[in-house]
User: Fold this.
Amino acid sequence: MSARLSGGSAWVLYPVAALTMLFVIAPLAVVVAMSVSGSAFATFPPRGFTLAWYGRVLQDPDFLASLAFSATLAAAATAGALALGLPAAFALTRCALPGRQAFRMLLLSPLIFPVLVIGVALLRLFSDWNSNSAPLNLLIAHILVTSPYVVRTVSASLLLADASLEEAARTLGAGWWRVLRRVTIPQIAPGLAAGALFAFMVSFDNYPVSMWLADAQNVPMPMLIFRLVGSIFTPAVPAMSTLMILIAFVVVVVMERLVGLRRAMAM
Amino acid sequence: MVALLGPSGCGKTTSLRMIAGLVQPTSGEIFIDGRPVTGIPVHRRNIGMLFQNYALFPHMTVAENIAFGLEARRVSRAETIERVNDVLQLVQLGGFGDRMPAQLSGGQQQRVALARCLVVEPALLLLDEPLGALDKSLRESMQVELRALQQRLGITTIIVTHDQDEALTLSDRVAIMRGGRLEQLGTPTEVYEMPASRFVAGFIGVSNFFRGRVERRDAGEARIVTATGEALVVEGGAADHDEVTVALRPEAIVIEPLSDDACDAANSVVGSVEQVVYRGFVRHTYLRMDNGETLIAFQPSRPGSEGAAVIAPGARARARWAAGSNRIVRDERAG
Assistant:
């Protein structure tokens, strides 16, 4: 992002961009501010300053169990989304499938379909199947809603990747697995990372699907937070939320350092 | 070294990719060294292919790029290092092993790509427009280098090109393709001096064409008369058909001032000079013949003697040529 605007357009674009960022960031700042409030109830502006709520939250077994469950679920859903999305993206970009467009739309449809409806439909489906394991049901549901992100980012990377590199690798004597591992994956690494990141975050803070499929023992973070807001709204809730923001932030920074997400996001 | 030469879209790259195994032929068999390879996947064919854009792996160093084929063949680490260094010396890039491809110039990238093909000691080297991305002077020096290297290593090589100079310079045999078909296969001399078809005669170099009827056949020569009355004598085989097309190279034609003698001879036409283009060592003369068509003649320009021999545009002149220069060609345009 080294390009600088100058002249008349800069006078319009910079303030608009600044306002947009303020619009996105301000609510989050409110949550962070509430989490350090010294009062017993979450208020804004905060009264006093304390980090005590963080200490209390980090010792709360409900919170820790929920965080561990959400993180595990998100990681597993990401792995599943990659396992399904990667071959699907390959098929969509590298093979001359009949009805490829229709196929693409079908694969991406969870993105545009109301998520709440997907949740309800899955609840019906799982009860018909007598599938009573909440973690398993949640995993399947989360893979369903996260895989389109992988398909999209990986397809875009594959379209930009130079197919002649793969051909060159094949003529040099490499079988398909070696070509994939040594040539294709390094080429599409930014897209893969972006897809994985989207998948993880979408799963990590998914509420509308989890709402239908969670049970009392397996409560993902967003549901726990929502439940607490409805009962006792102490600054512990914004503290949990702030921790979630922090996790997301760390994941993004690490990814950027590892593979240069900006390249993949720019597409 | 065989060159596949033809206009774009004639199927030469597709043919090369079929030999490599990147495209499956819809029918027919491909043999390498007498072995059928049609069913063998790309990575077991032991070929080296040089791509037009070089296709160097951008995330690997030069040495890693070159070692890739050896790695796939499970060559030991020590031997790999040795062979990579040897081939880098061969393409005069010793010491460049640690660079990334993006840090190299076009010519250097091309050498790395070539080294990557050569290091695996392929049974067959396939070059897809290898010099197309280089500028003219670099291209010419790479042509000479490529030819010398190929002869030293003795690897059977197929090169795809749309550049006839490149094909004639580099190869022992030239295959001229058109519309997915082979028009002619021969040495550079054969395809230039004895084109089999009107297409070949027009594609390689420049040719003048006459269409006419065979009027008389004698031992060793045939007399052909065109619709507008020009008479041509062709040496050698009389054609099977009555209607024939004759190709004539411009450099075989002598342009001279009009004189009275030999006015009715065969292989000679009269017209007015339309344009004379000076091209350094050669002078292109466009002669508008009395039948309305234009004849092009190349004449060597001898420095120091200009003026006297040059016929100015607008003047009447005679073009004549030897019977041996006429060549009957297959004409796909004729019905």
User: Anything to note?
Assistant: Chain A has a mean pLDDT of 86. The interface with chain B takes residues 162, 164-165, 167-175, 178, 182-183, 186-187 of chain A (CB under 8 Å).
